[in-house]
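[Solved] Which block belongs to which protein?

Original post:
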Amino acid sequence: MTESDGRLVVVATPIGNLGDLSPRAAQTLIDADLVAAEDTRRSRVLLDHVGASTPLESYHEHNEERRTGPLLDRIAAGSTVALVTDAGTPGVSDPGYRLVHAAVERGLTVESVPGPVAAIQALVLSGLPMDRFAVEGFLPRKASARATRLAGLAQDPRTLVFYVSPHRAAEDLSAMAEAFGCRSAALARELTKRYEEVWRGTLVELAERASGGVRGEVTVVVAGAPVTEHRAVGDAELADRVRGLIATGLPKKQAIAEVAQAAEVPKKRVYQAVLDSAGPR
């Protein structure tokens, strides 16, 4: 091999059903010189399933810092390294970003074999808007940090997707309900597996249902914040608002700026409205 032959291949693996592994992904695992895996025991089952005898090396959040460099050296020397995680697409709330970023920085070839992502599967099944969404991954364990994160998302109009540990599902859903209110949501568990199930309802309803316990891998999809419709404001009202602020002692320039921002109109329009309201001189 020459140095140009080396490459990092990010391989998406099934999130439950082994039948979802694509033929291209299977062939990549067979042909690779090395598979960097989050859990070598679980990945060995997958490799055995496709008849691959490719060597495995662990690559997870606790050793990725020290193993990134040696893996890049192997790729630079001409090896093909396939990166996999326990399930789904590496780098999406799983190890992988550090290796991909470092490979790109070093100018090495990076390829991706697409496949399952739990967040997308849950989003599709949720029945909630899919035109704009954000994958937020896992929430912080500490209540204060979790509340801060959710507060920052409370006004986000996009559909939000969270990964949730089953033993913290009720707690996380209650925190979401407190931060977001009684929004529509869906809880998807055991996606693509035999006991796949989707609960749909409000966050309050899902939190109550989860209080009885949830089993399996869990993904929660929450409707985005409702978009506030701004009432059109006429020029006369704009001028009145400016005069009201000036009466409180605010400088005219600042009053115009604040009214323009609140009404979501150009400052030039507010300024002209004030001039027009003064009448002919």
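(Second protein starts here: sequence line, then its structure tokens.)
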Amino acid sequence: MTDRYESPLSTRYASEYMLRLFSSDTRYQTWRRLWCALARAEMELGLPITAQQVEALEAHITDIDYDCVRQREKEVRHDVMAHVYAYGKAAPEAAGIIHLGATSCYVTDNADLILYRDGLKYLRGELLGVLANLAQFAGQYKATPTLGYTHYQPAQLVTVGKRATLWMQDLFSDLDELDYALENIRFLGCRGTTGTEASFLELFDGDGAKIDEMNRRLAGAFGFDQCFDVCGQTYPRKVDSRILNALSSIAQSLYRMANDIRLLQHDRQVEEPFEDTQIGSSAMAYKRNPMRCERICSLARYLMADAMNAPMTASVQWLERTLDDSANRRISLPEGFLCADAILRLAQNVTAGLRVNEKIIERAVREYLPFIATENLLMEAVKRGGDRQAVHEIIRRCSMEATARMKEGGDCDLLARLAAEPAFGMTEAEMTALLEPGRYIGRCAEQVTAFLERHGAGLGGVKSAGAEIEV
């Protein structure tokens, strides 16, 4: 519909998988699967529910009458009871046992936990795809000298590949956070209105062992190995905070990476992919803007801000339950997942097609190398008998003079100036012989190799679809 607002996360950015995961069909079919699992467990543990009733529920998981649901919700102002009603209409022989002993959070919260777990697993795969791309890139350019920058001012040389390992290290940290969030998701189970399981004590005639077994079966049916030890009516909202924090962490790292690429693209050293028919500007036809990286940064800011919703919600939960979390969570959690998905898809695309302009990098290195080499030249001058402090002052003064000349459009004449200083004790030819860029990258290549050996072993079989992703 073009006359109604639609979220750009749905229409422009997120993957088909994530859109389906958080769709109404997936959510409400999961509710019905939860009601089926509850009925089956209750039947198997001795409650008066028949196999035919369970089968009737299982036969009507996907045929949801949304018109019926909408009409009923208008009447009763309760979404879960509207779905119970519609489910009962589809399976009338089981209508009387749907939701037996449960509260609304049995379906709403457990379904959310299922969706969030599956969403995190999917994002984990996308994150590994980005890391696999960067591992290949880092290995390829591990020994390619490039200007380092501190304060965005030229500094000692690094390598193109070493810089990529800085991005990778951040992303591996995010992978740890995501894994921690996944490992600590528990199932809520069916715990009653305030988490006391009082309704099930009544149903099972005080048999607590049957209640525990019911919850074990429910958790197992949906791939969980345990439930939360204690809860109120809901699962702890700290879980949401942990999840969105993990997604925000990914956004922070990819913002940093994308912003670095934007800076490097300004200097034409490294560029994001650019298609043959791509238009960079509606007015300036020559432009090649880093729109993918700009989009990563833009969406990352949204996700980092969105993550603040969860701690604010977790901090204001009253006693066993309050409903001021519901409307916020209905927006902030799905959109957090869709946004993280969009950022990772873009990052896969960018890292699969990064272009390194080696000649431009080499020219920038050569321009600044006389300055960069001055620390080594200082050491050599001292070896030849110079006074360290006096040599340092010569380098400082000559560097300022050479820089001033360059700002006026002249060439860098730093080496000639140093050679003209008797106290420096070196000729221009001797200094020029030391200006091999590979001498000034320290242990960059070794560091990249060691990093990839330690962290990249599991990335060999990871396939990133980044090059094929439509962005």
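Accepted answer:
You had them paired correctly. Confirming on the second one: The chain has a mean pLDDT of 93.
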